[in-house]
Specification:
- The complex is a heterodimer of chains A (736) and B (450).
- In chain A, 65% of the residues lie in helices and 5% in strands.
- Chain A has helices spanning 25-43, 52-64, 68-91, 97-119, 121-125, 127-130, 136-149, 152-170, 177-189, 192-221, 224-245, 250-263, 267-271, 278-283, 287-297, 303-324, 332-352, 358-372, 378-393, 399-415, 419-436, 442-456, 458-489, 517-533, 566-574, 583-590, 594-605, 653-682, 687-698, 706-718; strands at 547-553, 559-565, 580-582, 613-616, 627-630, 640-642, 684-686, 722-724, 731-734.
- In chain A, strands 1-2-6 form a three-stranded mixed β-sheet. A three-stranded antiparallel β-sheet of chain A has the order 3-5-4.
- Chain B is globular.
- In chain B, helix 4 (64-76) crosses helix 5 and helix 5 packs across helix 6.
- In chain B, strands 4-33-32-31 form a four-stranded antiparallel β-sheet, with no helix packed on it. A four-stranded antiparallel β-sheet of chain B has the order 5-6-7-8, with no helix packed on it.
- The two termini of chain B are 39 Å apart.
- Chain B is mainly β.
- The chains are: A mainly alpha (736), B mainly beta (450).
- Chain B: Pathway: Protein modification; protein ubiquitination.
- Chain B: Residues 9-115 form the BTB domain.
- Chain B: InterPro entries: Beta_prop_At2g24240, BTB/POZ_dom, T1-type_BTB.
């Protein structure tokens, strides 16, 4: 019940007992004189001659005999008088001695106060609480506050001196920190309110204007990095100052002043600073500057948001350029590698400079997601990149390296909205790799499949896994075939068949060409063997996908082994019996589709160094009137000659259209299935909700187009899976 | 003639002519904040420092007999008072040396419901029936009866009584050991009564808590008092106009902070017991049978002015109608309320469920009722402390312990009639008896030596 208590009423007085034993009326006065003298002696550092016991007893007696009020009043006025003297001696202290003097006197006063309180302890315990007075120690502090700190001659001088010293220290001078600490501690001891009102508030105001000026100056002449360095140093200086000689409670306040003046007020100007702002730091990988910016901006409201927004827009902009620049789309592998590099670069920045801040990671991810999907060829390119890596790129790489690369690819894959398109391409590329035996590592292939499976589930990879199974069974079947039929086959050509399950592979039905009779025999033998062991199956030859190794002897007797496609093999075998054939003849004999045939002849006759055929007339392109001859003069340094077909690495425009068409076609049943699933559980739903639900369900694979969803709904209504509600046309009902 | 080594740390005290020798360490045990501690402090012994090797000697002009007891207290922590020393003398001396708190701490131990002893019976001198007894946090207490609250310190010496216009007192509460809140009835035709804070030490009125309605100060009759840990004071109020409900004041400013008007069907203004529940930040308001026809308990949430939980025995089936809930106490875990009826059955209400009935506990029939018919009976009361449950029935207090509230002790003190109120606080239990206003003080003896 002190200080801030409710207003008290003290309108009656304890009346003295009428029958009190009369003391010598001079007694109280005399006792008080003794005590007063003692108080003076204590202030004069002359206490050694005093008897504590005697003084204590005197004070006790005064309280006991109801002179408590006199004692208390006497103490108050004596101490006040002493403090007024002290105040004068502090006032006359010159310049730098002022604080010293103040501090010394404060120490003296504290010590004296303790001793006075010792003497008056009994009064403090009994008289003070029962008469609602301020306890002695607090009284001493209050009087010091009122007569010293708030004395007009000292008050503003003290503040000015303190602020001046702090300013000097900010300008690089060395000041007496120990003295500062004592003075601020004194202000704290006098109560938090004294410290705050008489020092902290003006200190913060002066600091604010100091830093506002300094930041103006810095921002005129410094680049962003230097400015941040200076701000950081100032911030650390202030924290250091608080820890050395200010109250710990001031730290948050002064740092917020520095943050506001140095950072918050110039935030936008800083990040956008020409040639040194955030974007330049990102471009030049200035980890230290970025980390500094992050740590400083984190302290102010919306600081990180500012960085994040600018970084996002920068990423989107550069990313957009990256994926839409036709120049950069020429090489898919290079394209994806560039994306990966970009990602690595920013991952590292976030890791090193931004403390792995989740919000920044999210911003990076969303930016990538945004611009990767700007180019609808991204799925194809990513698949091509994997294809490239799995064909040759990973040769010699350790298992961990492979994992790292695949993980990075998966990360890009996650950004893709059209995951089904990726699947389509991946299947094609995988098929090619498997059938041509170009896969570098089976483990790497399987690892990739596992990653896709964890990402998208079993459905996504079941067909891909089926392809692997086919490869394995084919191997077993061929072994068995040769084990059982080797005597029957004799010395004929060796046949290696891959039996592909229809549906698992991206095969196009394609009329088989006419195989040379030697091959046909063994093919038929295999067919009868296979159908004999697996009844009820159908075998179709995919002659457009096979390869062959054939031995050829040229004019001067040199022998070469030619590695060619099945089509090329068929063509070349024709030249066993004749030296020259027209295009029409070849087409007629082999029945190879015209476009394939042209490509195949082109690679046999028009590629330098691999021209085992000679064409007349000589030209780059194949026309239907050309005649082809066996090239007697063919030479090559290599024994084994690989004659590639002119294969399109990247899909050509029409092919791309076709793939897209197929993807669209494949999406239809998936959308329908999703609609039916949703309607089955919800029974009745309006159009917009269906669209939203379907989008949600299929998000993992692709982003369905609302127009397509609408078409599918209409189709389902036609097929009587759904019907429109009779009253509300926006509602659909599920028909079980 | 001591060797310097032996003299170090030794202190010789001449108290009223008798010489005591002890060590500075023993006296330092009194603390810097005591007379002995200050006397030995370096600040007061600067002159003696040079010759510091010898035994320091001090003279103290006090009674040696009492000092012997207090020195023994400092040495052993135990208080052993020879019969020739009076309580008053000892306390006076302890106050001189600044050791009164230590004497009090040595007097009785930490409160244990099953080890209570009757420490004192204090004869009252009230002209009428006592209304309430309240324990102070420091071991003192106050007794309210008629228009006066009598205040006792922990030595059970009576201080100056407290009056609020001499209006009949309904409730009193210790906000802290020096501040007493009093709720007094408004008398017809006189704008007196209300809630006020007094100094428990001097009896001075500190502050009157007002209720303003439409900016007009209204007089009112407060029923029960309570306060929370943030110095909010609550009182059930009945005003002359519409001021029926719970008034709230902020003790630090002294101003009215809130008023919870009673919603229809909730008897708040008549409440005879308020209890602040820290765990749920709610105020339990109980209005019991003798005051109204039906008993009513509710929990108020002041943050959104909401009745968070309520129970009433309105509409209880006729067969149970004769079981009136007469007193209720929220258990310390804040999950249930214990109630008691006129047959001294204990019952429990689950605070986590709204709209549940009382689970009466038949096996907790209290003590064997030894009812002398010429005695006036009192309604039973309940209290909870440190996991134990206390119930007053006639002239006995029963102590229930453990999670199932098994009867473990019964306290029967003065033969002064039924117990009309009791209160636990400051490690003591005070029981106010109906006849002659005697109150019994129960406390726990210090733990045995071995």
């Amino acid at each position: 019940m002190s200080g801030g208590g409710p207003p008290r009423k003290r309108n009656f007085k304890i009346e003295e007992f009428k029958n009190r034993v009369e003391l010598n009326p001079k007694y109280a006065e005399r006792t008080w004189k003794v005590l007063e003298h003692a108080i003076h002696e204590i202030y004069n550092h002359n206490a050694s001659g005093l008897s504590f016991e005697e003084l204590y007893r005197s004070a006790y007696n005064m309280v006991l005999h109801k002179y408590g009020e006199k004692l208390y009043g006497g103490l108050e006025s004596t101490m006040t008088r002493r403090l007024k003297e002290i105040s004068r001696s502090i006032e006359v202290a010159q310049g730098g001695l002022f604080l010293e003097e103040l501090n010394t006197k404060w120490m003296d006063h504290n010590k004296a106060l303790q001793m006075i309180r010792d003497i008056l302890m009994y009064m403090d315990r009994t008289y003070v609480p029962s008469s609602s007075r301020t306890p002695v120690h607090e009284l001493g502090l209050n009087l010091w506050r009122d007569h010293i700190i708030h004395s007009p001659m000292i008050h503003s001088r003290l503040l000015d001196t303190l602020l001046d010293l702090i300013h000097k220290e900010r300008m690089g001078e060395v000041i007496n920190r120990g003295l500062m600490r004592s003075i601020t501690k004194m202000l704290m001891d006098l109560g938090p309110a004294v410290y705050q009102d008489d020092f902290e508030k003006p200190f913060l105001e002066v600091s604010a204007s100091f830093y506002s000026g300094e930041s103006q100056e810095f921002i005129q002449c410094c680049d962003c990095g230097n400015y941040l360095k200076k701000s950081e140093r100032r911030l650390n200086e202030e924290m250091d100052r608080v820890s050395h000689y200010l109250d710990a409670g001031s730290e948050a306040k002064i740092t917020s002043v520095v943050e506001k003046e140095m950072i918050a007020n110039h935030m936008h100007r800083l990040v956008h600073m020409e040639n040194s702002g955030l974007v330049n730091m990102l471009i030049d990988d200035k980890y230290d500057d970025l980390a500094r910016m992050y740590n400083l901006f984190r302290r102010v409201t919306d600081g990180l948001l500012t960085i994040r927004n600018l970084m996002t827009s920068y990423l989107r902009e550069t990313g957009k350029q990256l994926v839409t620049d036709p120049e950069k789309l020429k090489d898919p592998v290079e394209f994806v590698q560039r994306l990966l590099n970009e990602k690595d670069k920013h991952d590292k920045i976030i890791n090193v400079a931004f403390g792995n801040d989740k919000t920044f990671q999210n911003a990076l991810n969303s930016s990538f997601e945004y611009f990767i999907n700007l180019n609808n060829r991204s799925p194809e390119f990513i698949s091509l990149y994997v294809d490239d890596k799995l064909r040759k790129g990973l040769k010699g790489a350790t298992e961990e390296d492979v994992e790292v690369i695949l993980d990075k690819v998966m990360m890009l894959f996650r950004y893709l909205q059209e995951k089904d398109v990726f699947e389509k391409y991946y299947k094609q590329h995988l098929a090619k790799r498997l059938l041509s035996g170009k896969t570098v590592s089976d483990d790497a292939e399987r690892s990739m499949i596992v990653k896709l499976k964890t990402e998208c589930g079993y459905q996504f990879t079941s067909k891909l896994e089926g392809m692997f199974t086919d490869m394995k069974t084919s191997q077993d079947t061929m072994q068995d075939f040769y084990a059982k039929k080797s005597e029957e086959l004799g010395d004929g050509p060796t046949l290696d068949v891959h039996i592909l399950t229809t549906g698992s592979w991206p095969t196009q039905p394609c009329p088989p060409c006419n195989l040379p009779p030697e091959i046909l025999t063994i093919c038929d033998k295999f067919r009868s063997y296979y159908l004999g062991t697996h009844s009820g199956r159908r075998l179709t030859w995919q002659t457009n996908m096979g390869t062959a190794d054939i031995k050829a002897t040229f004019g001067k007797g040199q022998k070469h082994e030619l590695n060619v496609s099945t089509y090329q093999m068929c063509v070349l075998m024709l030249f066993n019996s004749t030296d020259g054939l027209t295009y029409k003849d070849i087409e007629q004999y082999t029945k190879i589709p015209a476009s394939d045939l042209k490509r195949c002849l082109q690679s046999l006759a028009c590629v330098k160094g691999k021209n085992v055929l000679r064409k007349e007339p000589m030209s780059k392109d194949i026309s239907e009137d050309d005649t082809f001859y066996f090239n007697d003069k063919f030479t090559s340094k290599l024994v084994k000659v690989k004659i590639g077909t002119v294969v399109a690495q990247k899909e050509s425009e029409p092919e791309k259209q076709e793939t897209r068409q197929r993807v669209e076609e494949d999406r239809k049943p998936q959308i329908e299935a999703a609609i039916v699933r949703i309607m089955k559980s919800r029974r009745v739903l309006d159009h917009n909700s269906i669209v939203a639900e379907v989008t949600k369900q299929l998000q993992a694979r692709f982003l369905p187009n609302p127009v397509v969803i609408k078409k599918r709904i209409e189709s389902l209504i036609e097929r009587e899976f759904l019907e429109r509600d009779k009253t509300d046309r926006k509602l659909y009902t599920y028909l079980a | 003639m001591c060797t310097p080594a032996a003299g170090r740390g030794r202190v010789r005290l001449n108290v009223g002519g008798r010489v005591f020798e002890t060590t500075a360490a023993t006296l330092a045990g009194a603390g810097r904040d005591s007379m002995l501690g200050a006397m030995l402090d370096a600040a007061w012994n600067q002159g003696a420092e040079g010759e510091g090797e010898g035994v320091a000697e001090y003279f103290v002009d006090r009674d040696p007999e009492c000092f012997a007891v207090l020195l023994d207290l400092l040495r052993t922590g135990g208080l052993h008072v020879p019969p020739q020393i009076t309580e008053g003398a000892l306390c006076r001396e302890a106050l001189y040396y600044g050791l009164l708190d230590r004497v009090r701490a040595a007097r009785w131990g930490e409160f244990e419901g099953d080890r209570l002893r009757l420490a004192a019976s204090v004869a009252g001198r009230a002209p009428g029936d006592g209304t309430a007894v309240r324990a102070a946090p420091d071991g003192g207490c106050c007794v309210a009866h008629g228009g006066v609250v009598r205040v006792y310190n922990w030595m059970l010496e009576e201080r100056r009584p407290v009056y609020l216009d001499h209006a009949p007192v309904n409730d009193a509460a210790y906000l802290d050991e020096a501040t007493l809140l009093v709720a007094a009835r408004e008398r017809p035709g006189r704008r007196d009564g209300g809630v006020a804070a007094f100094s428990a030490l001097t009896g001075d009125l500190h502050h009157r808590f007002r209720i303003a309605h439409d900016r007009q100060i209204r007089s009112f009759t407060p029923g029960a008092l309570a306060f929370d840990h943030r110095c909010k004071i609550f009182a059930s109020c009945k005003g002359r106009f519409n001021e029926y409900g719970i008034g709230v004041w902020d003790y630090n400013t002294g101003d009215q902070a809130d008023f919870f008007y009673e919603p229809p069907g909730c008897a708040l203004g008549d409440a005879d017991k308020l209890q602040w529940l820290d765990g749920t930040n709610t105020l339990m308001v109980t209005t019991m049978f003798p005051r109204t026809d039906n008993s009513f308990i509710s929990l108020l949430d002041f943050r959104d002015k909401n009745v968070a939980w309520s129970w009433s025995d309105v509409g209880t089936p006729a067969s149970l109608e004769d079981k009136h809930v007469l007193h209720a106490i929220a258990m310390e875990d804040g999950r249930s309320v214990c109630v008691i009826n006129q047959y001294d059955d204990l019952g429990f209400l689950d605070l986590r469920n709204n709209a549940v009935g009382v689970r009466w506990r038949s096996r907790s029939k209290l003590t064997t009722r030894k009812k002398t018919h010429n005695e006036e009976t009192c309604y039973p009361k309940l209290a909870a402390h440190d996991g134990q449950l206390f119930a007053s029935t006639n002239d006995t207090i029963s102590v229930f312990s453990g999670p199932d509230h098994i009867l473990t002790s019964t306290l029967r003190g003065s033969d002064a009639g039924a117990i009309c109120d009791f209160s636990i606080g400051g490690d003591r239990l005070f029981a106010l008896h109906n006849e002659e206003n005697v109150f019994d003080v129960w406390d726990t003896p210090p733990p045995p030596v071995i």
